């Protein structure tokens, strides 16, 4: 019961943070590893449950999606292709190899969070090739299906390159694309034999409630405060796993 409550709380916090800023996987993934689950199983289980938060987050921003028009389809297509590649890579990655990669993946996600403000300010208002933005989104799809921590920040960067600079409009598409990436990964991982199905309902509930809550309060809480918390959390976890 205590483990289920901890997983529910971690999933709720992660869903809320993902809807607002991104990086929520830095909470749920270490929580599952702390409770004794295998890193690969933890990552796949997290992805299988994560779609709920992205879906409710997108619903919370649904009125903003109308502003995007024809931009939605190309980003949706490249996200799908990238997610397929990332899912196949994770399935074929040995557990021991993944354990060695985990600290670096977490620290990489922390770096993305740290550079987010710089990236947004640098590219704001600059017309950049949409092909490069779509390529970046393709890479984001691969990384998101393979590990996931920090993809919200990567997507906000690719959307900024396409000229989508309004944070709430970008968050609307970010959540929709995140739902797509996680759903594709889930379809692959469901048949891998490594998903811990017993905790999936708890995580789906937490992610779902957190995603909608995060979308609702996003205009009332400074995203910078959330990012600061995730930055400290992710840095601590990454260094712990790297040095242990």
Largest sheet: none
**Average pLDDT taken over every residue:** 83
Give the low-pLDDT segments: 123-128
Alpha carbon gap, first and last residue: 29 Å
Tell me the domain tally.
Answer: 1
Helix percentage range: over 70%
Protein name: Probable membrane transporter protein
InterPro entries: TM_pro_TauE-like (IPR002781), TSUP (IPR052017)
Transmembrane segments: 43-61, 68-91, 97-115, 199-218, 225-243
Family: Belongs to the 4-toluene sulfonate uptake permease (TSUP) (TC 2.A.102) family.
Brief overview:
With 244 residues, this protein is mostly helical. It is built from 11 helices and no strands. The protein has one domain.
Describe what this molecule looks like in 3D.
This protein has 244 residues and is mostly helical. It has 11 helices and no strands. The chain has one domain. Helix 3 packs parallel to helix 10. The longest helix is centred in the middle third of the chain and has 29 residues, at 95-123. The protein is globular, with a radius of gyration of 16 Å. The two termini are 29 Å apart. Residues 123-128 have low confidence and may be disordered. It is a multi-pass membrane protein. Its main location: membrane. This is Probable membrane transporter protein. InterPro entries: TM_pro_TauE-like, TSUP.
Notable traits:
244 residues, mainly alpha, 11 helices, globular, membrane, transport, transmembrane, TSUP, transmembrane helix
């Amino acid at each position: 019961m205590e483990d289920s409550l901890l997983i529910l709380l971690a999933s709720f916090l992660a869903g809320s943070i993902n809807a607002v800023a991104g990086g929520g996987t830095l909470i749920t993934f270490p929580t599952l590893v702390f409770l004794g689950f295998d890193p690969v199983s933890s990552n796949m289980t997290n992805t299988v449950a994560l779609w709920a938060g992205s879906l409710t987050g997108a619903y919370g921003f649904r009125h903003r999606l109308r502003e995007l028009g024809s931009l939605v389809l190309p980003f949706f297509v490249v996200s799908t292709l990238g997610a397929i590649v990332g899912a196949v890579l994770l399935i074929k990655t040995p557990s021991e190899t993944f354990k060695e990669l985990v600290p670096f993946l977490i620290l990489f996600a922390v770096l993305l969070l740290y550079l987010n403000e710089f990236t947004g300010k640098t590219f704001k208002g600059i017309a950049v090739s949409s092909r490069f933005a779509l390529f970046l989104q393709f890479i984001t799809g691969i990384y998101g299906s393979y590990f996931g921590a920090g993809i919200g920040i990567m997507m906000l960067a690719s959307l900024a390159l396409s000229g989508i600079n309004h944070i709430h409009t970008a968050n609307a598409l970010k959540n929709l694309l995140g739902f797509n990436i996680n759903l594709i990964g889930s379809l692959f991982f469901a048949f891998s034999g490594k998903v811990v199905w017993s905790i999936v309902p708890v995580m789906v509930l937490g992610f779902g409630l957190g995603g909608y809550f995060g979308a609702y309060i996003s205009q009332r809480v400074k995203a910078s405060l959330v990012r600061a918390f995730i930055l400290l959390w992710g840095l601590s976890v990454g260094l712990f796993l790297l040095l242990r």
